[in-house]
Amino acid sequence: MRVWIDFNQNGIFEPGESVFNSASSSAIATGTIAIPSNAYNGITRLRVLCKYSSESLDTDACSVGSSYAEYEDYDVNITGGVNNPSASFTYTWKIGNTVIGSGSPFTTAVAGATTYTAVVTNSAGCESSADVLVNVNAVPAAPSYFGFSFQCGAQIPVGTVVTSTSGEPAPVFRWYDDQFAGNLLQDGTADHFSSIISTTTTFWVCEVNAVGCESPRIQVDAYVIEPDAITLNTTSTSICFGSSIDLSYSQTGSTNNYVYSLTANPEAGSGITNPVTPSNPLTVTPTAAGTYTYTLDGVENDCVAQSSVSVLVIDISATPVITVTPTIVCPGSEASLTVPSGIVNTYCAVNPTTSTCCEKIGNVTFGSINNYSSSTGGYEDFTALSTNVSAGSSYPINLTSGTFASYSSDQVLVWIDFNQDGDFDDAGEAVLVTPESTSPWSGTISIPSGAYNGPTRMRIRMHDNSLGANTTPCGNSSYGQVEDYSVNITGGASNPSSGTYLWSTGATGNSINVNPLIETTYSVVFTGPGGCASVPAYATVSVHPVPAAPIATNSAHCGDQVPTASVSGAGGTYKWYDAPSGGSLLQDGGSTYTHSINTTTTFYVSETNSFGCEGPRAAVTVTVTVPNPITAFASNPAICIGSPLALVAMQMGVGQTYTYDWTATPATGSGITGTVTGFLQSITPSAPGVYSYNVTGTDATGPNVCIVHANVSVTVNALPPTPVFTATPASICLGNSSALAVVAPASNPIGTATTSNSSAYTPMYRLFEGQRVQYLVRSSELNAAGITGAASLASLVFNVTSIPSGSNLDGYTIRLAHTSSATITTFENPAFTTVFTAASYNAVLGANTFNFSAPYTWNGTDNLLVDIYWDNNADGTCASGSPICWSSGPNITYSNSTFASTVYFYDDNTSSAPRDLSTENTVSGTSTNKPNMTFGLYSGGIYTWSTGATGPTLTVSPSVTTNYTVKFKNTATGCTSLTSAPVAVNVVPLVGNDITVSPVNCANGNFTLTSNATGAPGLIYTWNDGVGGTYPNAATITANLPAGTYNFTVDIMDLCSVVRTVSKTVVVNTLPTIDVATSVPAVCGTGASATLTASGASTYAWSPAAGLSATTGAVVTATPAITSTYTVNGTDANGCVGSTTHTVVVGPAVTVTATATPATVCPGGSSQLLATASTGGGGSTPLATACTPPVANAAISTARYISNVVSSGGVSNFTNPTGLSTNRYGDFTATKIVTANPGTSVTITGTGGASDTYGWGVCVDLNGNGIFESSEITTSGSYLNVYNRTFTAPTDPGSYRIRVMNNWLTTNPSNSCAASGGGTATNGEVEDYVLQVLAPAYVFNFAWTAAPNSTLDNTGITNPMATNINPNAANVPTPADFTIVATEVVSGCSGSAIVTVTAVDDEAPLAPASLPVITGECAATVDAPIAPDNCVGNVTGTTIDPITSDVVTTVTVFEQGVNIITWTFDDGHGNISTVDQTVNLDDVTPPPAPASLPTYTAECEYSVTVVPTVEDECAKTIEGIPTDPGTGDVLTSLTFSTQGVHTIRWVFDDGNGNTSYTDQDVVIQDVTAPALVDCPADIMLPAHMGVATWTAPTATDNCGYGLTVTQTAGPASGSTFANGTTTTITYTATDAGGNSVDCSFNVTRRPELVISVTYNPILCSGNMTQVTISGSGGNPPYWGTGTFTVGSGTYNFAIWDADGAMATTLMTIAQPDPLLAACGTNNPELFFGYAGDNTATIIASATGGTGPYTISFSMNRPLKCNISWGSSDETWVAGANTATNTYTVCPGSGSLAQPPVSTSTATLNAGETYSLNVSLMQDAVITATITDANGCVQKCTTPIFAQDVRCLGGIGNLVKICHKQGTHGCRTTVSYTHLTLPTSDLV
Question: How many CB atoms lie within 10 A of CB 1717?
Fold first, then answer.
């Protein structure tokens, strides 16, 4: 798809106007078209191209370039753009040169064939015109009727035959029931009424011609008498299929002796053959189901009686069809079994239409049916589509046509089978018949309250009602389509014909639900009316298997993670629940749970197979270890943009080793990109907002990875807007001061419009009494306006550009709210904050500022809703039309936006009061425009100036020019703005010594003088011009002086009393003198022009513009309609302007006609010339017929009328004092006429009756078209007793209608065709008069000019002029043109004409009647004959030589057969005669053929290159033609490569039907054997590749054709070969001559490659072992073999041989569980010397590895012994499970012990512990070393924190004085409990 729009409306689709170009698409292409803001307003063209996708898409909007494409054009109406400078058109309509009307479209009555001219003029005055011919067709004559129609009973009135009087070969007649209007009963070529009538009827008949014009109607009467009635009876109107009925009949009366016959419709299946003479009664057995109408006809002579009865035959014997949904279920699930409800009706057939080209149904919308059909002709069955309807209700139906256009004669008919009897024949079942019209069609369908409940059929027919119409629901139409739909009726009556259903389950009804556990077959029987039962129907419901419970794999993790637990099963899908049965579905799908959890959880998971069957649930347990939590801190919960921020993560407790990963939400502007790692993050956010900083702690040191989360929220505040301030004044004198003042902070405007948009939804739309309007402002718009991040909004400003009338807005309220919506199409109602309200607000021009009652905080991210409402009629007291309530409201600058606004407004002064528009949610309209708006920002805070002063204002008195700045701190957020731009306070001296004069000074014209002095504000100016003029105190003054030289001075004084004097000499120039010259003394006729040339100046301006080609320039063309005076203003080089006038006289256009008698002469002959002159103009304009006002009652308001109408200004005038005219319309056009010369002024004055006042209208039909256009009507605009209108008479002579109207009720009666000009018909009057424009009388002078080589005997100037001429024309026709000029004696306007006299010789030479026939065999030469001529004597004939194409008098003919020579005789004067001569040439001698030709031989191929030739008498040299002797076909190739003998028959043809031939042989015999090349070498396959491929050998042969190569031994290439085998492959080559040769090769595959692996077991977890890998088979050497060091695990060992073959083995190398050592203590903090808290037990145990274990202890320092201030030493004592124990104690006083060691050599099994008791006075680390049975070693450590607290002892645990290592350096006492304070707290 490609789309163009002509945005500049120039009729061309330019490159920039291609607005959409889709990629290849199947059926629908969608996209968005942007309309440029500078597109021209108004209607323009949109063009769409659709092209087959395999071809390149055209870029030309005007050339398809393909047969697989289509263009379509549409109109687009553009608004809100710019005005098209060429788009303002006016339309004028003419007949010839007479204007008859204006506007487009234009309507006029047409009396006869007329050509109309449309003239279109644009705003630049350029014109274009076109003609259209309107033909008026003749009305045919009425038909004649001379017959008499009389009948007995209901028959076709065959006596109503009418006869055409028009002479049409196939006349068309229309039959109506009224003489003038009525209903159309029949339309067609039938000459009599062809439908049955049963009562006397009067028809009105007309004939219609081919173009649809009807003749007058004639009366045709058809008389009917009533015969005896007959009645046909039946024993039953409804029977079951297979049953019979008895038909009987009776007659009422005995007047007629009928002969009876019985027929059935339809005949097929009815049980009788049409017609049958019935017995009484007659037993009938229908043979098919359906509805049959039996008709009994009684006939006696011309009398016919008829009676019918319908019988319904119900067939319920057929097996019902059971619909199963679904057909297969899970065990216990539900399936639905349904059969059609009630009797299945069979409806009458609808045949395809005769033509399927045109009338097709496109869309049907009825209830829930909204169907777009395929537009297939004929019939479409849409009964699968259904809608529900209720009995007693009505529903709209809408239909459209399909692919092709519809026609005005198209019609739609709809039927519904309400009684469900299988037909549409019952009363009320035809529910819609539309009038004939084009698409669309619509109507209303009413459902009767008695309609039967249930589904039934709706049938729709669309057809052309004028071509083969069919208004019945059955059969076909010539043009049309039928569609069927289903309708389900509820709320009606029960169908008595409905039956019952019995299912094998015992259930009844047409639908049941079943829940089988295994595959089950169900049956149903239908019993209908009469107890007839159907054959049982069967249906089977299958049951799917159910999957088993899935296999569960549990998992464990630490912290908040996604578990790894999983399930597996039979390949279905899984559902995760929180309970063994029932419960909540947590996850649907996936073999693992995909959400993180942080507590131990058991899931219950089921599997659902591909059939949707869900199995039992399996438990899946995820064990979660809860680690220490973490917390996140921020250095500050709120910062300013640009400030740093510290983020810290901390573990709550000990025991985890976390790494910390940080992210931010939102990330943009947060200072964190992606994920960053570390417990401390120092960042600087780059955008304002509220950020959530999220940290994840991960501990991967333990057996399970632990994950925890925390977050902290930080608000980043935007900096306040940078302040803007002013300095007043900005320039001062030294010592003066300037006031610095901060401008209230505000956003930039949202929207860029500078002009009003009065059509937009403004927030002050006072065209209504109240309004609610809601605008959406996007966050991006606020950002673009300079409001970034969270901000406090303090005010809202709208710019009002005009206030037409009224501006009060009561209850004006503004509310704000946040929203996430990106657009709005209806009112949103979030929690609004009211920021402004006023009891009444009056708009003012310019900025309207609404200060908020409290600042509104925008969050910096969401969009903003601005909601405004007001109500001038809240109390319901508005008077209708009161401007206090509504009027034209203020206009506001508006901009286009991509975001919507929504508005509701009302203008209902009857609305109940009070009312609340704040909750009004009705949407009157939406728009993509919204007003420019500016938000004021909160200014609460502190301003600090660059001087250090604070406050929003500052007064300064600098001694030199100084720059000042200011900053603003928002006290709410603590954020400080950027420093403002500097503003200078200038200390300004007084300077400047010049005066500027503008413009150029001209006498008596204004000019200005401007001083360039500058200084501090308040300069004082004193001006003097030297001649006493007075001027204001201003830098610029205006002067106006006569020509001369002047000396101006000005004294300037500043505020500091400094004075400066400046002078200037000014020369005031004289004005130029303007002259005008004309190219002609007068212009002649309408459209004639004169060239006017002005001089005396440089540039020129002309006026008036009427009739001028331009209004500027020295030379213009004047084309006035009447004599006109023009003014020209000339401007000289000094810019001075002079003026003059020039009158252009307009004379008549002179038309001259001239005749010559005779017009044709012989050379030297004479003719008389006659001329006449006229002024043309098409004659006098006749008085056009105008519309007549409708009849009005003159008896009412008889005092209100036109009492007198007077004309003035004409050559002759009228006065018409009258009373009230009949019907209030007076036509005085025959008697009251004002005459006037063309272009003169005429005044019409009207006076009202009874001295009352009226509104007046005067219409003058100035263009004479009989229509009063708006430009021809003037109205009084107020009530007057006397009104006059002055107008200019037309320039064309003729009669023009004047209409005068008055009306007591309106001031502007402008409807010229309504009584009293559109007012009440009883309160005024209309009168018509005539303006007669006189034609002038003219006198002419005539002058003749002779043609070249001719003479005139008189050129005198008379009127008219006759003269004789003697044209000198010799030998050739010579037209001689003579010119006559006629000149009008007053204006000098002239015209001319040319009359032509021709001297001519028009007799051709006399050609011979016939010429002799020439014969020969090969050639003949013929000489030309001679023909006599009346002028030039004998003329020798010429012809065209067929060989040379020359014109010759002797010709030689060579062409065989009959040759025609055309001899031409030309006398040189254009007269030509011809005669034909026949030449017969016949060659009868065949060419001589050779007696024999040589034989050619070769092995493979031979090409015959020598073509034999013979010499023929006529044809000369003839080449032989090679042919096939057998078929006679010409051989296209003479190259022979097929083995054997080939015969060529050379045929020699002379081209004249004579042939001969000779045969020649070519023998091909190959005797050389072929050769095989590229025979494959032997192939060796590696062990791992079993498939061998090769390229078959190729063969060469001396001939190169007929050569085959086949494999004669071994498997084919690509076969698989076994390991360790060798196979032979053989190929054979055979050529076309039967010669052959062989070649062979072998394919061998190596033995299988085998791998072997050996290793020693691993004794300690984590240790390595040696693995030895070797190989066998394949192709040594091997890669991957040898000895390798590996740890435990499962390995896939592989080796490769030299060929790349690989062998693998999967092997698991085990190791013991890891040896783990665990240490701990019961008291990690000791206080030596403090009883009860000075000993600790160290405990160690082992797991894993290979038991039993040995354990030893050691300490990282020696024991402390013999410490002063006490006799106690540190102790080291073995505890439990120490079979052998060695340890160290203090050896004696004053010495230090060695580091102690304790070793247990006894067996310590897993789970057992070893203990050691210690008493320490200083910190130490104790290590336990554990060795298992395999020698594997593991260690663990236990730290002990110890203090010697013996100094001063202390009391309890409250106060202790501490020292270390025997010194007396005591520390300050500290109160603490068990050293819970860190060491740094001990000062």
Answer: 21
1842 is written with which tokens? 């110890």
Note if the pTM is more than 0.70: no
What are 1377's two structure tokens? 């043109």
Give residue 704's pLDDT. 82
Rounded-to-5 percentages of helix, strand, coil across the chain: 0, 50, 50
814, exposed or middle or buried, with CB in 10 Å at 0-12, 13-18, 19+? buried
Q: Which of 272-276, 879-883, 933-937 has the highest mean pLDDT?
A: 272-276
At which residue do the structure tokens 């040995």 appear? Answer: 1750
Which residues make beta-bridge pairs with 1202?
1248
Give the pLDDT confidence of 977-999 residue by residue, as tens digits: 888 888 888 887 777 888 888 87
* Residue 1241, phi then psi, degrees to nearest 5: -90, 140
- Measured between alpha carbons, how far is 1397 from 1156 in angstroms, rounded to an integer? 7
Q: Which helix (H) or strand (E) segment is 781 a member of?
A: helix 779-784
Bridge partner list, 1510: 1518
Whether residue 209 has pLDDT greater than 50: yes
d(CA 86, CA 1304): 43
* pLDDT tens per residue, range 258-289: 899 999 988 888 999 999 999 999 999 998 87
- What per-residue string of b and e applies to 880-904 under the rule 16 or more CB within 10 Å gives b? eeeeebbbebbbbbbbbbebbbbbb
pLDDT of residue 1780: 47
Distance CA 226, CA 1355 (A): 96
Residue 750 DSSP class: B
pLDDT in tens, 1815-1841: 887 788 888 888 888 889 888 888 888
Burial 1209-1224 (b: 16+ CB within 10 A, else e): ebeebbebebebbebb
Q: Are 1422 and 1461 in contact (CB under 8 A)?
A: yes
Asked if 1051 and 1061 touch (Cβ cutoff 8 Å), the reply is yes
How far is 531 from 525, CA to CA, in rounded Å?
12
Residue 1243: HSE in the Cβ half-sphere, 13 Å Cα cutoff: 6
Burial level of 1779, CB count in 10 A (0-12/13-18/19+)?
exposed
Query: How many C-beta neighbours within 10 Å does residue 554 have?
Result: 15
Specify the residue for token string 């080939």: 1542
- What CA–CA distance (Å, rounded) separates 113 from 454? 62
Q: Are 922 and 826 in contact (CB under 8 A)?
A: no
Q: Where are the beta strands (DSSP E) in 1088-1223?
A: 1090-1095, 1099-1103, 1115-1118, 1124-1131, 1137-1147, 1151-1157, 1160-1161, 1167-1174, 1202-1208, 1215-1217
Give the 3-state DSSP-derived string for 1550-1578, with helices as H, strands as E and coil as C: CCCCCEEEEEEEEEECCCCCCEEECCCCC
Residues 125 and 320: their CA atoms lie apart, in Å, by 81
With H, G, I as helix, E, B as strand and everything else as coil, classify residue 1055.
Answer: coil
Please report, for residues 213, 467, 1193, 1257, 1875, the alpha-carbon distance to residue 1220 in angstroms, rounded to integers and kept in the order given. 42, 56, 11, 17, 128
* Residues 6+ away with beta carbon under 8 Å from 788: 687, 688, 718, 860
Alpha carbon 1823 to chain centroid distance? 82
Residues 1664 and 1683: beta-carbon distance below 8 Å: no
CB-CB contact of 333 with 458 (8 Å): no
SS3 category, 1317:
helix
Greatest CA separation found in the chain? Answer: 179
The pLDDT of residue 1283 is 94
Residue labelled with tokens 């009664």: 281
Tell me phi and psi for residue 1838, to 5 degrees: -135, 120
pLDDT bin (cut points 50, 70, 90) of residue 1854 is very low
Query: Which single residue is written with the structure tokens 């004649």?
Result: 144
